[in-house]
Amino acid sequence: MLARQIGRQKTIPKTRTKAMVVIRPTRKLRSTLPVTQMVGTSDTALGDWYVNRLVVDRQPLLLLVSSASLLPMLVRARDVRELPRHLEDIVARRLARLGVATPLINAERRAMTPVRIGATVDRSVLGIMVDFANGVPYYLEAGSWDESALEVIEDRLAETPCHAGKPSDQVVFPEKKAPELLITKWAG
Prior knowledge:
This protein has 188 residues and is an alpha/beta fold.
């Protein structure tokens, strides 16, 4: 994969002077993840992470979507208050499954500290989240799925063309866009 090749060719700087990632919970999660005062935008390649809670087959899940790449992630909604502490690891595992080179993943991880909580600001991302959330139950067979099925669903959602009503050069395929953004930010 292109991300692996480029990731091996260049050394990624280990330090940055300013870094931050923003989690943007929907209203449903604001009491659990209260908004931090004075939040800007993320300094990461994948941008802010929007998060919503959904219930599938009586199981609470969190749907996270990158604002820049629209890359979706699904995790069980265990201890939602701890999401800021675990976000970096969740993203790193997802990127590794996409085949992104380790140096690019590590650069993104370094940029994900500290974590801030901010209000949602992009209705387009919220709309994509609604589409993804509506699709999740169709991929899960009631009563017979486990956590490993969530990875399969993430992969299928990441293949979904986003902004398909726009001209073809503006259509986003999250599984392709995420590695492109990481290469541009960290290896370019």
